């Protein structure tokens, strides 16, 4: 019974981890966190590689630029040694003395860019200069690459010449022809690229190094890294945004389906189709629900037709029997007041005999219309056509005074319709007589008992007068 059926238990509103919405949101957050960590891991590796590539490419460009300055942009120039002096093409680079050191290109590059650059001549291990250097108390172990020219300045502002590369750098050059790393040059931390110099016979005759101040380089690389990081964060934000848009759409779809199904659960068949513009699977679910609703609507229409009186469009006797059965079950579990009324049309046989059966049907429809208005104004009230010109009205949970007021209004409203009935002994218009049984519903009683007692009251009243009512107890 729709009006008295308990449709569900009351639940506390709040964060319920068992709901699919919560699970999907949590899953979305976890996925987002995983993506952030995964992307951060990739980006951190990418940034490290980027830093190395940026530093390497900068130093490579520096080395090529210094070579171009030395050779006056002669691409055919080759490194060679004449005596103790190293040359690049025809340009004399130096022998470790200031007199023969070609400092201009190195100092020019340093003044423009702050890039340190110098050239070493490879000497034998028994070279007297190396032997003398090893005897000195130096903070490093010198090896067989002798500085002959460059832009590295000492504390006196003079280019540092006549010194040697440290042993670990020399070993790296001998092993692979290249060495990268930080070095302390004239009191500054410098990141350097060392590369061997070969003559036309592919013989290693020296080495060249370029270096940038570590702090300056970190600042430049940091700017590039910040751009990459910001772009990466932007991409991550877009990905997370897309994830949550998809989650939001999915949750809205689920909520729409759940709301639609909730209406079906409480006995409401929605008028509109369930329209879902979402995932293909959700569309299939929606279509299945729409098919189910269509079948339910067809069955409901058939049931409504079977339970509706065709003449009056009020519930018929079969519908009344089902309603009273459901109501009786409810009242046994929840005892409360109950009023049951039965009414009929005064002198209806005379009306039919004199005005015809067609007008008789109109008279019954008029009474039904008044009853329908009563049920619309008082949603708890139930009215049905019991048979012929008899109608039953049920007032569940109403007070005696409320029922008497509605009974009087019903009688007055029928009379107000002013349908002519000259053959009535009660009035010159159609009227009704009503019998009502009111009492507290007892677990030992039935609605049939109330109806029988109301029917007795109706006939007791009709013996005395018409166009009136009688209210009795069970």
TrEMBL record:
Pfam families assigned: Cache_3-Cache_2 (PF17201), GGDEF (PF00990)
Domain GGDEF: 336-474
The keyword Transcription appears for this protein: no
Gene3D superfamilies, A to Z: 3.30.70.270
Coiled-coil intervals, chain numbering: none
Keywords: Membrane, Transmembrane, Transmembrane helix
InterPro entries: Cache_3-Cache_2, Diguanylate_Cyclase, GGDEF_dom, Nucleotide_cyclase, Rev_trsase/Diguanyl_cyclase
Membrane spanning stretches: 20-43, 228-251
The keyword Transmembrane helix is assigned to this record: yes
Record PANTHER family: DIGUANYLATE CYCLASE DGCM-RELATED (PTHR45138:SF9), REGULATORY COMPONENTS OF SENSORY TRANSDUCTION SYSTEM (PTHR45138)
NCBIfam families: GGDEF (TIGR00254)
Name by which UniProt lists this protein: Diguanylate cyclase
Source organism of this protein record: Catonella massiliensis
